[in-house]
Amino acid sequence: MQFNIKFRPLQLADAHFINNLRRLENMEKLIGGSIRPVSLERDQKWVEDLIMKDDQSTVYYAITELENEEIIGYTSVSNIDYRNGTCFWSGIKLDQTKAGKGYGKQTALKLMQFVFDEMRMVRLAAECQENHSIALNMMLNVGYQKEGLMRKRLFKNGKSNNQWLLSVTDEDYVEIKKRNGL
């Protein structure tokens, strides 16, 4: 697969981009976490903490196009358990002007490469709201498998929502790698 994106470490200046994404209510309604106003200063502190802390259980990356270093999104892996070889894809947030260009799929596959080839994990889990068909279809398309529907897992938009639990194992990744030329 030819990637049109790359990952780079977060930079302090990325806080402006991240803060602007948080203001997109239509996006926030479809992902985990609370919908709440967050000041630019808070996001600056959050990004600074991510950069400066030596947290071995979470990795964040800025997503950029190959030609430049300007952030177009970010993604992360959390709950990294080196003893058991498991982790959780915390998701992806992309600039809405980049939607439909395959960047979500590329991010998912590039992240899998990192998780399985570099971190030597054996299982990568993810979750997605039952009604977020775009995210669900993308995850299924790249090789995630549904493990089950978690009922009333996330309170969002004034109600309890169901979420899909999905995963990729190291055995699944062997096939995903072949199928996508990774």
Kindly describe this structure.
InterPro entries: Acyl_CoA_acyltransferase (IPR016181), GNAT_dom (IPR000182). GO terms for molecular function: acyltransferase activity, transferring groups other than amino-acyl groups. Keywords: Transferase. This is N-acetyltransferase. The chain is α+β, with helices and mostly antiparallel strands. Strands 1-2-3-4-5-7-6 form a seven-stranded mixed sheet, sandwiched between helices. The chain has one domain: 3-Layer(aba) Sandwich (Aminopeptidase). Helix 1 crosses helix 3, helix 4 crosses helix 5 and helix 4 packs across helix 6. Helix content is 35%, strand content 34%.
CATH homologous superfamily grouping: Gcn5-related N-acetyltransferase (GNAT)
Shape descriptor reads globular
**Strand content range:** 25-35%
Which spans of ≥5 residues are poorly predicted at pLDDT below 50? none
Going by helix content, strand content and strand pairing, the class is alpha+beta
According to CATH, what is the class?
Alpha Beta
Order of strands side by side in the largest beta sheet?
1-2-3-4-5-7-6
Rg measurement, Å: 16 Å
Query: How far do the termini sit from each other?
Result: 6 Å
Largest sheet: 7 strands, mixed
The chain-level mean pLDDT equals 92
The CATH architecture category equals 3-Layer(aba) Sandwich
Helical content band: 25-40%
Give the number of helices: 6
CATH topology: Aminopeptidase
Order of helix and strand elements from N to C terminus: EHHHEEEHEHEEH
